[in-house]
Amino acid sequence: MNDVFGYIAYGENELYHRGALLSALKLLHHCPTARIVVATDRTELFRAYPVETMLITAEQKEQWSFGGSYHFGIKAGAMRELLQRANRLLFMDTDMYPVGDPSKGFRSISATHSFMRLCEGPHRIYQSALPGKNISIGGQILSGQEPMWNSGIVGIHRDNLSAMVDAFAAIKAVYEVTDTWAPEQFCLGVALSQNGRTISPHGLPIRHYNTRGKKQFAEPRVHAFFNACGKVPVGQQVAKAGRYRLWRTPADLLRQKLRRSP
Q1: What is the DSSP letter of 109?
Q2: pTM of the predicted structure, to 2 decimals
Q3: Which of 56, 117, 189, 220 could covalently link to 153 via disulfide, CB atoms 3.0 to 4.6 Å apart?
Q4: Coil, helix or strand for 38?
């Protein structure tokens, strides 16, 4: 079975690229045999590491973002390309990182079952904006009552490539009527729930820093890791990354609270 861990990193913000690389190093610490593919517009940043890269071209970014109007479309387009390199794909956003071996997740991925980070339930704006707009995914007219699944983590089988194509085809229309950042994950969740397919939360040993406070703590630590360790041998970087903390202790939380106090 061709099992692939995938990341997507693009743009000028160094945190996305370094976040993907540090997560990949942590992954290699917990799962040394992992096959990792990073879709990126800056392949040179990953050249020294035991990961594969898939170039995201300027033309693809323009096409997938609908002329620059919705940049999360790049994530949807690149994830579709990643899936074509795998039988089973376990995708993580760059602010997700394993704290144990997540490879057991591949066992729950099948042609009829996917997993995503978590179910957020119906979205208030979608409930009011989508009825009567005649937007469909895979022949299903969207009502806005469909649950929103978070795509920070996605486990998907290659047999569901057509579902990803159906999801991508609806993103622009959903974005235009909702004016939110979430059409990419909403459309994917709907598509993966059709025709007898199911989705569940991932349940894997993966943490994140995708909230404001967690990111404020983690971002300087991501940069500090590569400033200190970026030139040591890769094997040493993997060992150090496996022990490197990106989560906050109670003392860290207290310091953040005190800094925010007037």
Answers
A1: -
A2: 0.96
A3: 117
A4: strand
Taking the alpha carbons of 27, 83, 87, 55 in that order, is the dihedral positive or negative?
A: negative
> Which residue type sits at 25?
L
* Residue 144: both structure tokens together: 């806005």
* Digit-coded pLDDT (tens) for 44-83: 999 999 999 999 999 999 999 999 999 999 999 999 999 9
From the CB of residue 258, how many other CB atoms can be counted at a distance below 10 Å? 8
Instruction: Determine the Cα–Cα distance for residues 250 and 97; give it in Å rounded to an integer.
Output: 20
Q: Which residue has the tokens 């994917």?
A: 188
> What confidence tens digit (pLDDT) does each residue in 221-235 have?
999 999 999 999 999
Beta strands in the chain (DSSP E): 3-9, 36-40, 52-55, 88-92, 96-98, 113-122, 136-137, 140-141, 147-157, 198-201, 206-208
Q: What is the DSSP letter of 230?
A: T
